[in-house]
């Protein structure tokens, strides 16, 4: 029993460390970096426009791409984004973000079970549950041109 408890604790700590947020930035390179969007739906958070459907309804230039993995709930009502993404967007001088994709997948899980019985009969029982859910989001960081 002590071994199972130690193993469970070790797996849980490992999953929490693996689920720490990381934010990566990839610069955009292009000869012609001027785009005209047709509009869509957006929200503004802390002064940053976040386009979750469509693109800005004005001319813009692409600065780069921000990828964020985090272990918190994705805002499916499109009202907020991760602090790491906002920080990185401000660092590179972005006026807005275009949400490209948001996804989630179950990370690690733990399962246990047991069986008991006699020579001709027996019974088994088991259970399992996820320890972490890894979520990720990608954004295109843009600068308004007019």
Task: Provide a concise account of the structure shown.
The protein has 146 residues and is an alpha+beta fold. Helix content is 18%, strand content 51%. It contains 2 helices and 9 strands.
Describe this structure in words.
The protein is of the alpha+beta class and 146 residues long. It has one domain (2-110, 131-144). It has helices at residues 2-18, 83-91, and strands spanning 22-27, 35-36, 40-45, 48-54, 59-70, 96-106, 109-117, 122-130, 133-144. The strands form two sheets. Strands 1, 2, 3, 4, 5, 6 and 9 form a seven-stranded mixed β-sheet that branches. The protein has a two-stranded antiparallel ribbon with strand order 7-8. The radius of gyration is 22 Å and the shape is elongated.
């Amino acid at each position: 029993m002590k071994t199972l408890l130690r193993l469970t604790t070790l797996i849980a700590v490992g999953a929490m460390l693996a689920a720490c947020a990381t934010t990566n930035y990839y610069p955009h390179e292009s000869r012609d970096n001027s785009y005209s969007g047709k509009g869509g739906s957006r929200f503004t958070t802390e002064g940053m426009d976040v386009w979750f459907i469509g693109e800005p309804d004005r001319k813009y230039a692409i600065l780069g791409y921000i990828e964020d993995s985090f272990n918190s709930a994705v805002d499916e009502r499109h009202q907020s984004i991760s602090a790491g993404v906002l920080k990185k967007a401000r660092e590179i001088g972005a006026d807005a973000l275009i949400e490209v994709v948001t996804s989630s997948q179950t990370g690690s899980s733990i399962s246990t079970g047991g069986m008991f019985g006699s020579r001709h009969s027996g019974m088994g029982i088991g259970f399992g549950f996820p320890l972490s859910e890894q979520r990720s989001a990608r954004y295109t960081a843009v600068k308004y041109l007019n």
